[in-house]
TrEMBL record:
Organism of origin: Mucilaginibacter roseus
Name of this protein: Acetate--CoA ligase
Domain AMP-binding enzyme C-terminal as annotated: residue spans: 518-596
Residue ranges of domain AMP-dependent synthetase/ligase in the record: 66-456
Pfam families documented for this protein: ACAS_N, AMP-binding, AMP-binding_C
Coiled coil: none
Origin organism lineage: Bacteria, Pseudomonadati, Bacteroidota, Sphingobacteriia, Sphingobacteriales
Entry's Gene Ontology molecular function annotations: acetate-CoA ligase activity
């Protein structure tokens, strides 16, 4: 399954296009199946309807746990580094992780969980989060992990959309110097969620919480019950390859976040295949991905990908700047990290603290570096290369999405020649195409277009939960017979791909995906706001910042106080991650005669480029543009 030279890459790529079914069957043969498939692939992008390995039976946790026990029971599966560096770190071997997953799977069963149930997980980055995820998979329950930075309202929306019956959470969380009240947030969310019959609460910070009789139970008490029952094993539920494994919500250009659905067989194969190849993982290596399990990066490259390959995956509870900006490098030295997978926004932020935090650190164990989530600017790429990798570690700039399940366009570490700012080449099995606005393929090199994929891969999303039509219109209806990514892309003269950013109304703020419509809806909930428009602007650290134009005809308080109120509103409705960085009060928005907001103009002004606003003659009230230009925030 592992490609180790560029010739092999080219050969594998060619085979994957000419005989895709044979190619993927060979990859899938590296996994443990309870029963093999009847068909490798059945598909059409019209409905869409994509089935991989149909008829096959498996459980992903047997691939992530049981199959490693024979030879690698004592290999560390998870190394956990706490937020506070003086607290003890933890190591869970494959045997220990297996036992804990089985134990908690039995807790879930004791609490009424069944195959097919949807279970919401809202937890800090502690090993029990990975255990909870795997325990769901063990019994065939569908997990829906919600990132800790989302508000009660966002959690409630997600719980209702998926009709979850169980929530797994913790009393509190430590992140940097903050104590976060997680259970309180869940309590607020659950006021709106009658479907939830049980919450299981892990003790982490032992902050005061309200435990509701009949609904809330402590994780530790439930474990004790399982222990007294004296049955530590939990047989892995036999799943169909196309049974749902998880739902993960992500933002789009319209409306509420959608629940991207991944299924057991294809997702497992794709997460494992990409992990093994992109990072060229070798047994014994320590691999550290700095993402949160609340995002797809954490699902695929902290939990499922690495564990399916028997790797040692390091989980970090805290943030890169606590107790100081040298924390990531301290972790590398402390745990002898060999592979580091992180985000451009983290690198840019750490660059800003200067080299003092790097210069005395022992980074000699590092062999491979990865970047994910947003375009990496050349400055950050070189900083990583020079000061972290000491020009000895290949950097893999990995492009992919929640919807793709795993990495799509990327260098293979040490195999593909890299180029700063470029995700380089598609992995074998991935067929990218660039198209113009009419969906016509743009062939050849040295061209720009909208990035689509023309053939399915095992990790492709199958649907958006509860709304298949939305899946069709969002991804498969823009261009006939193509999966549309929403990204713009350049293919240079060498055939290398460079992602240029979203072409829809989705922002990428510190690697987090945020829909402008979602932020607008939140701002518009503020009692004085009549309407608003949100666009992105270049931000030195976050990549993109959130710029809001807001119409308030009658301002009751000072503009500063009103700004704070609006920020509070967005925090409450979506979460702190969506807070506007800049709020400009305007008397009106530039609209066409048909009432459409001209975002192009607002984007240019937010970017500070007012020289050439293009054609404004179709505007209802051109004077408003002048006013907005005058009041633009630097
Ligand atoms: C969007 C997907 C992929 C996991 C984390 C984000 C942007 C992602 C890169 C990259 C340039 C990138 C794209 C994509 N993106 N990786 N290496 N270079 N842009 O997952 O939240 O689903 O966001 O992130 O715009 O569409 P996500």
């Amino acid at each position: 399954m592992k490609i180790t030279s560029f010739e092999q890459y080219e050969q594998a790529y060619k085979q994957s296009v000419e005989q895709p079914e044979q190619f993927w069957a060979d990859v899938a043969d590296n996994f443990t199946w309870k029963k093999k498939w009847d068909n490798v692939l059945q598909w059409n992008f019209k409905d869409p309807d994509v089935k991989w390995f149909s008829g096959a039976k498996l459980n992903i946790t047997e691939n992530c746990l049981d199959r490693h026990l024979e030879k690698n029971a004592d290999t560390p599966a998870i190394i956990w580094e706490p937020n506070d560096p003086t607290e003890d770190f933890r190591i869970l071997t494959y045997k220990q992780l297996h036992d804990k997953v089985c134990q908690f799977a039995n807790v879930l069963k004791n609490n009424g969980a069944k195959k097919g149930d949807r279970i919401c997980i809202y937890m800090p980055m502690v090993p029990e989060l990975a255990i909870a995820v795997l325990a769901c998979a063990r019994i065939g329950a569908i997990h829906s992990v919600v990132f800790g930075g989302f508000s009660a309202q966002s959690i409630a929306d997600r719980i209702k959309d998926a009709d979850c019956n169980i929530v797994i959470t913790s009393d509190g969380a430590y992140r940097g110097n903050k104590d976060i009240q997680m259970k309180n947030v869940i309590d607020d969310a659950l006021v709106q969620c009658p479907s939830v019959k049980r919450t299981i609460v892990l003790t982490r910070s032992r902050t005061a919480v309200s435990m509701i009789k009949g609904r809330d139970v402590w994780w530790e008490d439930e474990i004790k019950k399982v222990e007294t029952q004296g049955n530590p094993e939990c047989p892995a539920e036999e799943m169909d390859a196309e049974d749902m494994l998880f739902i993960l919500y992500t933002s789009g250009s319209t409306g509420k976040p959608k629940g991207v659905v991944h299924t057991c067989g294809g997702y497992m194969v794709y997460a494992g295949y990409t992990f093994a190849n992109v990072f060229q993982y070798n047994p014994g290596e320590v691999y550290f991905c700095t993402a949160d399990i609340g995002w797809i990066t954490g699902h695929s490259y902290i939990v499922y990908g690495p564990l399916s390959q028997g790797a040692t995956t390091l989980m970090f509870e805290g943030v890169p700047t606590y107790p100081d900006a040298g924390r990531l490098w301290d972790i590398v030295a402390k745990h002898n990290v060999n592979i580091l997978y992180t985000a451009p926004t983290a690198i840019r932020s750490l660059m800003g603290f200067g080299l003092d935090y790097v210069k005395d650190k022992d980074l000699s164990t590092l062999k491979k570096l990865g970047s994910v989530g947003e375009p990496i600017n050349e400055e950050a790429w070189h900083w990583l290369d020079d000061h972290i990798g000491h020009n000895k570690c290949p950097i893999v700039d990995t492009w992919w999405q929640t919807e793709t399940g795993g990495i799509m366009i990327t260098p293979i570490a040490g195999v593909t020649p890299t180029k700063p700012g470029y995700a380089t080449l598609p992995l074998p099995g991935i067929q990218p195409v660039l198209v113009d606005e009419n969906g016509k393929e743009i062939e050849g090199n040295g061209v720009n277009g909208n990035l689509c994929i023309k053939f399915p891969w095992p990790g492709i999303l199958r649907t958006t939960y509860g709304d298949h039509e939305r899946c069709r219109t969002t991804y498969f209806a823009t261009y006939d017979n193509l999966y549309f990514t929403g990204d713009g892309c350049l293919r240079d003269d060498d055939g290398y791909y460079r992602i240029t950013g979203r072409v829809d109304d989705v922002l990428n703020v510190s690697g987090h995906r945020i829909g402008t419509a979602e932020v607008e809806n939140a701002i518009n909930m503020h009692s004085s706001v009549v309407e608003s428009a949100v666009v992105g602007y270049p931000h030195d650290i976050k990549g993109q910042g959130v710029y809001a134009y807001v119409v308030i005809p009658d301002m009751h308080d000072s503009p500063d106080l009103t700004r704070k109120d609006i920020i509070m509103t967005v925090s409450r409705i979506i979460g702190p991650i969506a807070k506007p960085d800049k709020i400009q009060f305007v008397s009106g928005l530039p609209k066409t005669r048909s009432g459409k907001i001209m975002r192009r103009i607002l984007r240019k002004i937010a970017e500070g480029d007012t020289s050439n606003l293009g054609d404004t003659s179709t505007l209802l009230d051109p004077a408003v543009v002048e006013e907005i230009k005058q009041g633009a925030l630097k």
